[in-house]
Every structure is written in structure tokens, then in C-alpha cells.
UniProtKB/TrEMBL annotation, chain A:
Domain ABC transporter stretches: 5-262
Membrane topology recorded in Swiss-Prot or TrEMBL: Peripheral membrane protein
GO molecular function: ATP binding; ATP hydrolysis activity
PROSITE patterns in alphabetical order: ABC_TRANSPORTER_1, ABC_TRANSPORTER_2
One GO CC term on file: plasma membrane
Source organism of this protein record: Stappia albiluteola
Family (UniProt): Belongs to the ABC transporter superfamily.
PANTHER family the record matches: D,D-DIPEPTIDE TRANSPORT ATP-BINDING PROTEIN DDPF-RELATED, TRANSPORT ATP-BINDING PROTEIN
GO biological process, one term: transmembrane transport
One Pfam family per UniProt: ABC_tran
Location within or outside the cell: Cell inner membrane
Protein name as it appears in the record: ATP-binding cassette domain-containing protein
UniProtKB/TrEMBL annotation, chain B:
Membership in a protein family: Belongs to the ABC transporter superfamily.
SMART domains for this protein: AAA (SM00382)
Xref: Gene3D superfamilies: P-loop containing nucleotide triphosphate hydrolases
InterPro entries per record: AAA+_ATPase, ABC_Ni/Peptide_Import, ABC_transporter-like_ATP-bd, ABC_transporter-like_CS, Oligopep_ABC_C, P-loop_NTPase
Protein name as catalogued: ABC transporter ATP-binding protein
A GO term, aspect molecular function: ATP binding
Source organism: Stappia albiluteola
From TrEMBL, chain C:
Localization: Cell membrane
The name this protein goes by in its record: ABC transporter permease
UniProt-listed CDD domains: TM_PBP2
Main location: membrane
Keywords of this entry: Cell membrane, Membrane, Transmembrane, Transmembrane helix, Transport
GO cellular component: plasma membrane
Family matches, as PROSITE patterns: ABC_TM1
Keyword Transmembrane helix: yes
Species this protein is from: Stappia albiluteola
Family annotation (Gene3D superfamilies): MetI-like (1.10.3720.10)
A Gene Ontology BP annotation from the UniProt entry: transmembrane transport
Transmembrane segments: 32-54, 104-125, 137-161, 173-194, 225-246, 281-305
Topology in membrane: Multi-pass membrane protein
PANTHER family: ABC TRANSPORTER PERMEASE PROTEIN, OLIGOPEPTIDE TRANSPORT SYSTEM PERMEASE PROTEIN APPC
Length: 331, 338, 314
């Protein structure tokens, strides 16, 4: 089966230079932030692919490019074989837009506080002209509210009358309103409490089964990702360092950074397993280290890692790792 | 003197008077922290865990106020002290670490100035001794080239390094108790682990007790000796961390533990507690957890359960009263029940 | 599972919500604000119903007599019971003149603020939402605008208008010249504030959600962003109303404002100014006090509104 989403060599550079006058007076050069570099992955129909990484890893930048909120500097994104960048013409783009939706991180900022919930959920229905007549629209809104386990009467309320978890349900209802096939979830539960997070994650899985949804799941929480995703991509300073099936990644992590991330997770079961201390912090992404950007924190780094950037080695289809140590068998 | 626990909180109540009635943000909680002990306080947002910390150090934001109970530090009441005396206790006897390192650090002064000033305010030392002490502390918290970094300003440090400086600042007057409110929440995963280890090690080295407030059960399991689980301004369960994490007894704790996704879990669904924590203006009568509880019965809706001893823990649940053995359910059984 | 969406608050009617709102409560709690609101309302009522309320019509040449000129207030020696606050040099009742004067002052103030707010909010919204060159262009104009004081602009426009329309026709247009020149100096503040709020709102995820489904920028600005940036603009509008009234009074005092045949509060003060040192203090002092009270009341209302709409200060 061909993949639903194909991302190849996607890059995004932000100009973070100081204003022109400052540059001239301080003789400062232009500064660029390479938020995402050379990102390639694909997602099969009905699959959940996760991107994990810490702050500054570029995972949210990738998410925004995939849904089209942010233009890519380089590379291409194909949804069902259609190139997002080339289909700027309205008809193809509208069709594509309807099929891609997004669930955001902050349920307190993702709903317009001045709009009633039913108007919020109806906006995509109206924008794409999916239902005819007010009655059909409000029936569909009620149906969507029930789908996310809310009461259809809740549509008459304003967002501030709901708790964080209920707001995230409303966001999911809005995302489902256009009957999408592919949903990008950008840290959908990181603003929620644990018990509410479980409700939302379970709901997202139920909806995936019900509608055959494809998810791109962005998170910094490896345990959440483990629970949701079939394949996982690990990002560090704007680059993918490892892509693996979930079981593989947690059972047999390849890249030293993946291993470090796993070491950093608190051990809830208190098995007392011996753990290596995690060291160092993420460098400034405007001035990333040369060579492999992870080398200053890497226990396996050698001279080659400091100079030469490791290429992404594809192993089996759709997995791989970018590390000299792994390539040379030192890992 | 020595029979007193380091910190003793008895029936502490914090109210927020509003025009729609008084909100009981903390409603009668009691716990002790022994010398050298690390007590975790865990709960979801709105459970009152941060307020408990603020109430103990006398930094409640108005209109919040302590409306009952008492807080004793080595047997001496500190909840009714005048502001000036309390200021002396904060910093000298109780150190504080907050979520955002920038709230503890003044951006206009170098970290050296801030640490030296704090040391000299609380300890009878000369400026030279204070500087030496500051360098030593920064070295201890893992700031590389500490003596050269004294002249640096907070913004010149990364997030993790800043939190290290805050830890040094909290410990510089050798406090007996450190209250750490979500000290790692603002940090990246890989830095969190470093800070938690550092906090644990340095408090042990200095003989300070710790009250660690967090929403992250993983951090609690890694760090604490005992843990108090808060729900709606009350303590649901308090006991040795191994007991609470491995064999929780309160239905809320059981649900909470089941809701946390773990790395080795392969099950499709997480245990979920229906609903969410009640708002402060709508706390149900009886047990505050009763509308979400799978084991609720008539008594839960009418009478509020007080914490009672179950094994080495205290659990505020009528099931524990009815039949102590019945609530000792393991996670699997809880999954079936809910 | 459906019962999880507990009906925490039933959808209440707008009136019930208003009665229960924090804004109303904070209003009732502040005695100063209530007094200010009462005073403002009194001025509005007096201005709107001036033809009914005022004991005399100061512009009806048939009704005024030069014989009644420069009478002191009624309670003073030589005062006339018909003229509560005395009369001016042409025998016009000062109290009635104040009522009619407030009418013009408030009209100029309101129209200026409405014009300035409309222009400022639209430009600020566009600058903040579109960003880039459009933003830079609008904000540079705003900065240039800020370097010219309102009075200077008004004098320039007035001079230009005199040149174009001639002195006689000027009276017909003077109201709009005033409104135009005052709003020209006020729109910048609206634009800057709204641009700031727009930048904040634009970054929020609900705007991204609307962009995602292809809602055009203009509709996002009007439907999503505008309702969420109006709060701060309302505060500025209130405070600027006071500023506009003062500016109009200043211009009229300097003689570039409304003519003495249709006096505003500023014109009245100017007329009275000539008699201030000859003992007829009431001609200037009463309109002056009225102006001060009006501006103070509106400013107090604005201060309260700013605090009430800012949850951090509550």
C-alpha cells in the first residue's frame, strides 16, 4: 500500500538576524536558525507515526509544514501522491486541506474565547460546504460532540465553561468536522493532567480505529509516544537521528541520543535498574556544533563525529539511524 | 526538642474568600516531614499541592489565607508569625526552589552578588568567606568553572544551569527544609533527570529535608521517601513511596497510577478515571472523589473519610475503614473494576 | 460517557450573565466609579436634552438682551434669579451656554474618537495580522504622526481649510475640521495597541486552526481576531474621549475651534477669559469647572474600565 504521507528532504530555515540597523552598527552577520533539516519519513494509511524530541528539536516546525501552516524552505510533502507545494491552485488545495487536520497543544488557546462551541465546530463544515442548511449543520455538530463523548447541548456554551480535557475534546471534534483522513497532533496532551491525558489518548485511539485515521503524533514524552505510535522518529537539533518501530526503539535503541533519552525517563516501577547519568544540555540551535550535532554530549564521539556529519542510514524500509558509531559498529 | 518532626502540618486549611462564597482550596491536611526525609506531594492541577507549599512558607497570594490548623517547624509554630520573623525563616531555615528559575533570580544582579548577599544576610560570615562559600556551592551543583561564573548574569545561563544556581541559592544558608515546587517542569527531559539527581544528592549531603511538589509520579518514584497524594485540597493517601507506587490503596491513586503510560506497557488502552477534578466551588459532599470513583457507595456521598492507617500508609477512603484488606487491590484488579 | 460533560453552568441568558459578571460587580464596588458614571451621564443628558432642560436659548438672538449682560450668579449681590450662574457680556445665560457648549464639546469628542478608533483599529489589525512590509509601512506612518502635536496639526488643517473654503464657509465645515484634526492625532494609539494585541492573538492556536481550513486572512481578522482585541481598544476610546474634549477646548480657546456663535466649552472659556480680570469671573470659571469635571469623570471611568478588563489587576 502506498504511504498516505511522504515527506522528503524537508528543511526550514528562519531568519533570526537582528534588524538591519543593528547589523550595520554592530557588524553582526545575518543569523539563521535551521529549525528542520533534511527530514524524510513516510506514514502508511491508518498508521501512527510519532516525532519525539526536546525543545528546539524542530518537531513542531515539521508538524506546521506538513499541515501547510508554514512554508518549507526546501523539500517536498506529498499527501496521497499530491505535492502540497505544487498544488497551490485552489481546487486541489481545498480538497487536500479538508483531508488534513490538526490538534493543538494548548486547549486554552486553540478555541476562540468569543465563539460558542457549536460555531467553533461548525466552522470547518461551513468553510468546506460539507452540509446544506443550518439544520443539517447543527445535527452534524451534535453528532461530533457525541463522538468526543460530550453532550450535544454543550454546543451552546462558551469555551471557558469547560475544563482543559473537555476543551481538548472540542478541539478533536473540530478537527473531525471536515471528515479528515490525516491528523497532525502537536503535543495534544502535554497541557493536560495525567488522568485526563489517559482519557484523551484513549479517545484518539478509538477514533483512529473507527475512522481509519492516520496520525502524525508530536510529543516530548516517550512514554506517551510508546503508547500511541507504531513507528517513531527521534529528532535532535532539527534533524532526524533515528527512525524505528516502537518495539525496536525501546527494546534496542541505536542512536546514543535515543539511549540517553530513555535513560532520562524516571523509573516508575522502581525496579532499581542501574542508570547512566545523563549529561549536558541542548546547544543553541543557531550555532549548532559542527559534524554530528550530538557529539559534545555523546559518550561514543570520536574525531570523525566532530568533523563529518553522519548520513541517515536507511536500514529496513522506513527505519534508520544517523550515527557514525552505529555505522562503524562501535555502538 | 528532638521528638518533634522537622515539619509538622496539622489540619491546615486555606480559604479563598470570594463574593460567591468562600472557596476551600486546602481543606484540613496533616502530614509530617522527618529530618533528612524527602516527602513528595503529588496531585493534578488544582489539587492544592502548590498552595500547601506557599501556605507553609507564608507566601499565600491574597485573598488566600490560612483559616485553620497549624504548621510547626521543629515544634515551633510558624503559621502565625509576623511577616518579618517569617522572612527570616524563609531563606535561613526553609529554602525555596520554584518552577521557573527566573522568578528566584534577579536579572539585574550577577549570580555571585545574589548568592553572597543571601549568605551574608543569614550567616555570620565575612564577604570573603561568603564568596568562597558561593564558589564552593556552585561547584557542588555542577556549574563548570564556578569561580569565573560568579560575575555572570542569570540570562547568560541555560535553563538547566539556572535551576542549578537556584538550588545553590536555596541551600546557601544551610536550611533545614527545602521546598521545591515543580523544580523540573520547565526543563527538557534530559535535563530534568540531572536536576532531580542533583537535588536529591545535595540535600542529602547538607542534611536538609525536602518537600518536593510535582505532578510527575515518575519524579516522585525516583526521588522521594514518602509521598502524599492530594485531591481537591485533601490528602487521599500518604505513605512510603514504594507502597503508594506499587500497591496504591485509594481508588484515586490506583486510577492515577493506571493512567500513566509506561515504557514497557503494551496494552492498548490506559486506565482512565472518568471526569475531571471538581472545581473549588463545586466540591461534592462526602468524599471529594466519589463522583469519579468506581467503588462508590452510600457512605462516600454523605460522610467525608478521614485518613486511617492501612499498613504503613494512611488512606482517606471508606473502603479502607469498611475492610482494610479489601482495598489492597493491585493494578490489574483495579483495571478490571474500572 | 456522555454524562462526563457535566452541565457545570447551564447556558444562561445574556442578562443573567451580565448581572453575575465581575465587571458589574467591580463597578458597584467602587464608589468613585459610580460617582464618575453618574456625573458623565448627567453631562450627556444635559447635552442631549439641552433645548428642553436649558432655561434659555443662548443662540436665540430674540431671547437675549444686552441689558442682562454681565450679571453675576443668582446668589450674589446684583444677581438675577433667572440666570443661575450669571450672564456673559452679551447677556447670555452662562448655565444654558454650558449645557449647549457641552453638546458641541461632546459631539466633537465622540465623533473624533469614533473616527480615530475605526481607522486605528483597522490599521492596527492589518499591521499586526499581515506583518512584514505592510506592518512596517503602517507603523512608520504612525511614528511620523506621533512627532506632530495635535494642536499643530489642527492649526495646519484649519489654515489649509481657510485657504480652500475661505473664512465665511469655514463655519460650515469647522465641526468636521476639528473632528478630522483631533482624530488624526488619536488614531496612532489605537493602532499601536490593537497591533500589539493582534500580534498576541495571531500566534494563538485558534487562529492557526482557522488558517488551516483555508479561511481568508480578511475574514480571520474580522471574525476571529477583532472581537478579541476590542477590550483594550475600548479602554483607550474612553480615555481618548477625555483627551479629545480637552483638545477641542484648547483649539477653541486658541480661536481655531468653533465660532463664538456656536460656542463649545472651550469657546466659552475664551470669551470669559477676557473678563476674568475685570471682576466677571463667572463667565470663565463656570465653563472651566464644567470642562474639568467632565474630563475628570470620563477619565475615572476609563481608569476603572482598564482595571476591570485586566484580570491581572483584579
Amino acid at each position: 500500500m502506498p504511504p498516505v504521507v511522504e515527506v522528503s528532504n524537508l528543511s526550514r530555515t528562519f531568519d533570526v538576524s537582528k534588524p538591519w540597523l543593528n547589523r550595520v552598527l554592530e557588524r553582526a552577520p545575518k543569523a539563521y536558525l535551521k529549525a528542520a533539516q533534511d527530514i524524510s519519513f513516510s506514514i502508511g494509511k491508518g498508521e501512527t507515526f510519532a516525532l519525539v524530541g526536546e525543545s528546539g528539536s524542530g518537531k513542531s516546525t515539521v508538524a506546521k509544514m506538513v499541515v501547510g501552516l508554514l512554508a518549507a524552505s526546501e523539500g517536498e510533502i506529498r499527501i496521497d501522491g499530491v505535492d502540497m507545494r505544487k498544488s497551490r491552485n485552489t481546487a486541489a488545495m481545498r480538497g487536500l486541506r479538508r483531508r488534513i487536520q490538526m490538534i493543538f497543544q494548548d486547549p486554552y488557546a486553540s478555541l476562540n474565547p468569543r465563539w460558542r462551541v457549536d460555531r467553533i465546530i461548525a466552522e470547518p463544515i461551513r468553510a468546506f460546504g460539507l452540509e446544506r442548511g443550518e439544520q443539517a449543520i447543527s445535527a452534524r455538530v451534535g453528532e461530533l460532540l457525541e463522538l468526543v463523548r460530550l453532550n450535544p447541548r454543550d454546543g451552546a456554551k462558551y469555551p471557558h465553561e469547560f475544563s482543559g480535557g473537555q476543551r481538548q475534546r472540542i478541539c478533536i471534534a473540530r478537527a473531525l468536522a471536515s471528515r479528515p483522513e490525516f491528523i497532525v497532533c502537536d503535543e495534544p496532551t502535554s497541557a493536560l493532567d495525567v488522568s485526563v491525558q489517559a482519557q484523551i489518548l484513549n479517545l484518539m485511539r478509538d477514533l483512529q480505529d473507527e475512522f481509519g485515521l492516520t496520525y502524525l503524533f508530536i510529543s516530548h514524552d516517550l512514554a506517551v509516544v510508546r503508547h500511541m505510535a507504531a513507528r517513531i522518529g527521534v529528532m535532535y537539533l532539527g534533524r532526524l537521528v533515528e527512525v524505528a518501530k516502537a518495539g525496536e526503539l525501546f527494546g534496542n535503541p541505536q542512536h546514543p541520543y535515543t539511549r540517553m533519552l530513555l535513560e532520562a525517563i524516571p523509573d516508575l516501577n522502581m525496579t532499581g535498574r542501574p542508570r547512566k547519568a545523563v549529561e549536558g544540555e541542548i546547544p543553541n540551535p543557531i550555532n549548532p556544533p559542527p559534524g554530528c550535532s550530538f557529539h559534545p554530549r555523546c559518550p561514543l564521539a570520536n574525531e570523525r563525529c566532530r568533523i563529518e556529519r553522519p548520513a541517515f542510514l536507511t536500514r529496513q524500509p522506513a527505519t534508520g539511524v544517523a550515527c557514525h558509531a552505529v555505522e562503524e559498529g562501535r555502538a | 526538642m528532638s521528638e518533634h518532626p522537622l515539619l509538622s502540618v496539622r489540619d491546615l486549611k486555606v480559604d479563598f474568600p470570594t463574593r460567591r462564597g468562600t472557596l476551600k482550596a486546602i481543606d484540613g491536611i496533616s502530614f509530617d516531614i522527618a529530618r533528612g526525609e524527602i516527602l513528595g506531594v503529588v496531585g493534578e492541577s488544582g489539587a492544592g499541592k502548590s498552595l500547601t507549599g506557599s501556605a507553609i512558607i507564608g507566601l499565600l497570594e491574597p485573598p488566600g489565607r490560612i483559616s485553620g490548623g497549624e504548621v510547626r517547624l521543629k515544634g515551633d509554630r510558624i503559621d502565625n508569625l509576623p511577616a518579618k520573623a517569617m522572612r527570616h525563616i524563609r531563606g535561613k531555615r526553609i529554602g525555596m526552589i520554584f518552577q521557573d528559575p527566573l522568578t528566584s533570580l534577579n536579572p539585574l544582579f550577577t549570580i555571585g552578588e545574589q548568592i553572597v548577599e543571601t549568605i551574608m544576610a543569614h550567616l555570620p560570615v565575612s564577604e570573603r568567606e561568603a564568596r568562597e562559600r558561593a564558589v564552593h556551592l556552585l561547584d557542588e551543583v555542577g556549574i563548570p568553572a564556578a569561580s569565573q561564573r560568579l560575575g555572570a548574569y542569570p540570562h547568560q545561563f541555560s535553563g538547566g544551569m539556572r535551576q542549578r544556581v537556584v538550588i545553590a541559592l536555596a541551600l546557601c544558608a544551610e536550611p533545614e527544609l527545602v521546598i521545591a515546587d515543580e523544580p523540573t517542569t520547565a526543563l527538557d527531559v534530559s535535563v530534568q533527570a540531572q536536576i532531580i539527581r542533583l537535588l536529591k544528592r545535595i540535600c542529602r549531603d547538607h542534611g536538609a529535608s525536602v518537600m518536593l511538589i510535582t505532578h510527575d509520579m515518575g519524579v516522585i518514584a525516583e526521588t522521594c521517601d514518602r509521598v502524599a497524594v492530594m485531591y481537591s485540597g485533601r490528602i487521599a493517601e500518604i505513605g512510603p513511596v514504594a507502597d503508594v507506587v506499587r500497591a496504591p490503596r485509594h481508588p484515586y491513586t490506583i486510577g492515577l497510577m493506571g493512567a500513566i503510560p509506561t515504557l514497557d506497557a503494551t496494552e492498548d488502552r490506559l486506565t482512565q478515571i472518568p471526569g475531571s477534578m471538581p472545581r473549588l466551588d463545586a466540591i461534592p459532599s462526602g468524599c471529594a472523589f466519589n463522583p469519579r470513583c468506581a467503588h462508590v457507595f452510600a457512605r462516600c456521598r454523605q460522610e467525608r473519610p478521614e485518613p486511617i492507617d492501612v499498613g504503613s500508609s494512611k488512606v482517606a477512603c471508606w473502603l479502607a475503614e469498611e475492610d482494610g484488606s479489601r482495598t489492597i487491590v493491585d493494578k490489574k484488579k483495579a483495571d478490571q473494576l474500572s | 460517557m456522555t454524562e462526563m460533560a457535566s452541565p457545570r453552568t447551564a447556558a444562561t441568558s445574556r442578562i443573567a450573565r451580565l448581572l453575575d459578571s465581575d465587571i458589574l460587580h467591580s463597578f458597584l464596588r467602587s464608589k468613585v466609579t459610580i460617582a464618575a458614571a453618574f456625573l458623565t451621564l448627567l453631562f450627556f443628558a444635559g447635552a442631549i436634552f439641552a433645548p428642553i432642560v436649558a432655561p434659555h436659548d443662548p443662540f436665540d438672538l430674540a431671547g437675549i438682551s444686552i441689558l442682562d449682560a454681565r450679571l453675576p450668579p443668582a446668589w450674589m449681590e446684583g444677581g438675577d434669579a433667572r440666570f443661575l450662574l450669571g450672564t456673559d457680556d452679551q447677556g447670555r445665560d452662562v448655565f444654558s451656554a454650558i449645557l449647549y457648549g457641552s453638546r458641541i464639546s461632546l459631539a466633537v469628542g465622540f465623533m473624533s474618537v469614533i473616527l480615530a478608533a475605526t481607522v486605528g483599529i483597522l490599521l492596527g489589525l492589518t499591521a499586526g495580522y499581515m506583518g512584514g512590509r505592510i506592518d512596517a509601512f503602517i507603523m512608520r506612518i504612525a511614528e511620523v504622526q506621533l512627532t506632530f502635536p495635535a494642536i499643530l496639526i489642527a492649526l495646519l488643517i484649519d489654515g489649509a481649510a481657510r485657504g480652500i473654503f475661505g473664512n465665511l464657509d469655514r463655519e460650515k465645515y469647522v465641526f468636521w475640521i476639528l473632528v478630522f484634526s483631533i482624530s488624526l492625532s488619536l488614531w496612532v494609539q489605537f493602532a499601536r495597541t490593537v497591533r500589539g494585541s493582534t500580534l498576541v492573538e495571531r500566534g494563538k492556536e485558534y487562529v492557526q486552526a482557522a488558517r488551516l481550513i483555508g479561511i481568508p486572512p480578511f475574514l480571520i481578522m474580522i471574525r476571529h481576531v477583532l472581537p478579541n482585541v476590542l477590550g483594550p481598544a475600548l479602554v483607550i476610546a474612553t480615555i481618548n474621549l477625555a483627551l479629545a474634549i480637552i483638545t477641542e477646548a484648547t483649539l477653541s480657546f486658541l480661536g481655531v475651534g468653533v465660532p463664538p456663535t456656536q460656542p463649545s466649552l472651550g469657546t466659552l472659556i475664551r470669551i470669559g477669559n477676557d473678563f476674568l480680570f475685570s471682576g466677571e469671573w463667572w463667565i470663565a470659571i463656570f465653563p472651566g469647572a464644567a470642562l474639568a469635571l467632565l474630563v475628570l469623570a470620563v477619565n475615572l471611568l476609563g481608569d476603572w474600565l482598564r482595571d476591570a478588563l485586566n484580570p491581572k489587576l483584579r
